[in-house]
Description:
With 413 residues, the protein is α+β, with helices and mostly antiparallel strands.
Amino acid sequence: MPGMLSSSMGQTPDTDEPVVEAKPGNQPEDLTGRALQLRIRQQELLAELGVLALQRTSFTDLLDHTARMTAEGLDAQYCKILEYVPADKRLLVRAGVGWGEGVVGNATVGADLGSPAGYALHTGKPVISNHLENEERFRTPELLAEHGIRRAMNVILQGDGSPFGVLEVDSQLEGEFGENDIAFLQGAANILGMAIEHQQYERKLQAALERHQILLKEVNHRVKNSLQVVSSMLHLQANTVGDPALSERLMEASTRILAVGRAYNRLAYNADYENIELVAYLREVVEDLEAAVAPCKIQFDTPREIQFAADRAILVALIVNELILNAGRHAYVDSADGVIRLQLALSDDKTIAISVSDDGVGLPTDFDPALTKRLGTRIVRALAGQLGGELTRQQSTGGTHLTLVVPLHVVAN
């Protein structure tokens, strides 16, 4: 902070020394035992404040702690943290100690160069006023006069890109603040300023993340709507095409698209945009398939909720879609209805087994999934490979039992 400041506010000191009042003699401070103890205590308080800042103390609590510790470290009765409000061009008392009721959160002081706090804010230079009753450089704020303040110090509080405000300490007692005091005050302001900058930066990151999440949810919502439109168009086309074989293929395509759309629907309303709850997702897919496999009934059995990566859950849903459609089309050709069972089971929280079974006619004895030209089977084999899973067929005298075993989490290469 600068040395002497002219009473004319048109001149700004060029030095980096504190702005202090002129005083005769300028005698060196007598470091008595009490003064030395106070300097030691100041260093302890700065260390405590630094720890609080690193502990991610809430912003309001950090302001309160800073005001209290600063007042203690300077043996003063009053301290306040002023936040600059650009719209009002004033400094708002955000936190403080010693002040009367209603001051904190409501009282303001001028932020112009004629105010000690305003001068510190605009120049970045600390200001010491040891005799406010005789102050000729600045006007004395009404708040200080009302509380009988005789001396005060102000230092700037930096923020993220622009000053946050000012840290000020005030005393009703006679005496003088010196350079050691301003060094302590500036140390407290630096610690608080870094915490303010960090929290403001985190708020900006959080706001950016929230905007990103909103955008992502909107994209997921629109993709879901688009897929539903395509699925509905295919469904309508299937009902009017006049060719049973083609109609069946169009219905299959419609259910595949709807299964993918269900995933995007969940992502659009899910706080976690990378994972979805697999059981609830598959339950929706099964509900969509019930009409396609009627009069067959689908039984769904699962032990509990399973969090699963969204992109991999879509592949699982497509496999389930194909297996249930195949069972509904081929398993019960000689009966009016039947049951198709879908079961999920976890193994040591490392793998998940998805089984689709029926009690129908079963697959031909010479059936080889690796050689078949059926589109559904080829889709299942391709998707299982993408999941890093294995599709197996359980030998049985009746019906078909197929199980897909996939890792619960992606296995790193």
